[in-house]
Amino acid sequence: MAVAIAADAKASEVACDRQRSGRAINTVSLAASVVQRGQPPVRGGQPPRTTIAAMAASGIEAYHKDVARLAPFPREGKAMRVKECILTGLLAAGMSLGLAACGQAGGTNAPATDANPPAEQAANNTGLSTSEQEAFYSTPITDEIFARIKGKSFKDDCTLPREDLRYLHVLHKDKDGNVHEGEMIVNQHIAEDVLDILRELYKNGYPIEKIRLVDEYDADDERSMEDNNSSSFNFRFISHTNRISNHGLGLAVDINTLYNPYTKVVDGERIIEPITGEPYLDRDASFDYKIEKGDLCYTLFIEHGFEWGGEWTDRKDYQHFAIPDEKIAEWYPNNVK
Ligand SMILES: [Zn+2]
Q1: Which domain covers residue 112, as residue numbers?
Q2: Which among 65, 97, 130 is the end of a domain?
Q3: How far is the CA of 254 from the centre of ligand 1 (A)?
């Protein structure tokens, strides 16, 4: 049985590679890392069969459930997204292992009953299924990930060591409750905090539309923000200095950026980023994806030691949660004004 899964996952990888136009990501390794929470993907490796088998034995119901919810994941752009490839691999694994079990349960759509609850849900009390929990993980910046960010968010003049960064894989829900996979790169100092925050937001259905690497927008902040993308690391110096910005350190996180724009008045002229966020400067208006003081997103970031740009007085950055400068000075004493 395990052999069949590995074969299916491999077939999925090949299919994804074909559509991915050469993007250097090892899908099987990433899929394997989903079931090995906290361990970095093994480059070029096969999924650990014992783990896959255990996963399938305990998580078949969840795969059907998750895949059903994940089905609306948007297909866009020139290539099948890596996230979909991962899903396809998991789906292939879950489906091929699950067929026999589903037959016993009365069909692929047989709901779980109290008499026969999914084993994985009984195994934890976090409110998330095991497969959901395992979708939240952090890894160092592998060569595959680095290939995606080099020359983009990890610019050629980047002075931040690659080792200081972490890749996060998460789930998030949009305003309609659809589940999406997300990717974010942050500083290692806040990796676990951001993972905890995003997990909690997911658990509570706090809507976040997109969590993609800014590299998918060629590290163009404006494009990323106009697309309402949530992200963190994008290397840059603060203008006219050799001091790295908070985002350049991966120590700031922007959430639902279109609906929570940045604004400042300079010489009587109002700056708005993204420019298409202007309608959402009216913070008394009601609209989707708005971050408000006291809401869950705000509360979690504050609890984890961040400050919110929506509370600044000389400017407003409603999307922006950042580690305070004093703390950053402890971690990066040479990155001073
Ligand atoms: Zn920001």
Answers
A1: 2-116+125-130
A2: 130
A3: 5
Same domain? 75 vs 12: yes
Euclidean distance between CA atoms 97 and 131, whole angstroms: 15
- Provide the residue type at 337 as one letter: K
Domain's final residue, options 102, 130, 158: 130
> Ligand 1 centroid vs 179 CA: distance in angstroms?
24
Peptide bond into 274 cis (omega under 30): yes
Please indicate, yes or no, if residue 320 is contained in any of the structural domains: yes
| CA 246 to ligand 1 center in whole angstroms | 8
Pairing of strands 229-230, 210-211: parallel
Q: Token pair of 296, please?
A: 């869950």
Distance of CA 293 to the CA centre of its chain: 23
Residue-wise pLDDT tens digits, 87-129: 444 444 444 443 333 333 333 343 444 444 444 444 456 789 9
Q: What is the pTM of this model?
A: 0.67
Tokens 């998918």 sit on residue:
216
What is the spatial distance between Cα 172 and Cα 161, in angstroms, rounded to a whole number? Answer: 28
pLDDT at 44: 35
